[in-house]
Amino acid sequence: MSERIRWLDGWRGLVCWLMIGYHLMFDCILFGWLPYSVTQWWPVFLLQRFIALSFIFLSGVSSHFTHSDLRRGLITAAAGAVVVTASYVVAQPIRFGILQFLSVAMVLYHFAGRYVEKAPDALAPWLWAGLYLVTRVISYTTFVEPKWLFWLGLRAHGFQSADWVPLLPNLFMFFLGGWFGKKLMALPASSRLRTAGAPGALVWTGQRTLMIYLVHQPVLYGACWLVSAALR
Fold first, then answer.
1. I need a labelling partner for 165 at 20 to 30 A (CA). Which of 57, 105, 111, 155 fits?
2. Binning pLDDT at 50, 70 and 90, where does residue 190 land?
3. How many whole angstroms separate alpha carbon 166 and alpha carbon 44?
4. For 32, left (φ over 0), alpha (ψ -120 to 50), or beta?
5. Which residues contact 122 (CB under 8 A, 6 or more apart)?
6. Average of pLDDT values for 197-213?
7. Calpha distance 91→187 (Å, rounded)
8. Cα(72)–Cα(70) distance, rounded to whole angstroms?
């Protein structure tokens, strides 16, 4: 980012730690330390949605504080390719997960963001939030015959993915973040929303989220394996 806003980095860092805890829960299930039923608890569902939507919203915000959304998107796409390859190696295939979505959203915003931002400021947040809710209902309740539309948000029966973050409805959450980032960028540099801080540990984490995302699962799994081996 060309200009750091500490509370945004802190929010991203907090979400990153929540993500680590969420994925650790699944590793504990895999090693038999927790029942799979915990994934059906409503607080776990809310946690998962908060993590995913925060990453998407904050990525949209960051579109106004980055040197190039295109460069950011290509880097994210490369990282996503590594994660997808690893997911097939461990037999938990990811088909259009969070990194694939973010990379596409960033590239789209690079080329079309100026047109998205033409939506009137008074209308934009309601428009993007409303479209998110409507298309989420459609995406999660509609099944189609073609099997290749999963990236758009339309699944065929039997579709499975270890992580699924399709363009619809999530692109509209990205646009909502873009609207907020535009408003934030327009504020004076002395504004409290520009200068508010956050704990240093969260800021540090939030500035390194992509790298942490890439390494945290192997580290978590390795730690669980060592604990399991020690308990035998």
1. 111
2. confident
3. 21
4. left
5. none
6. 96
7. 48
8. 5
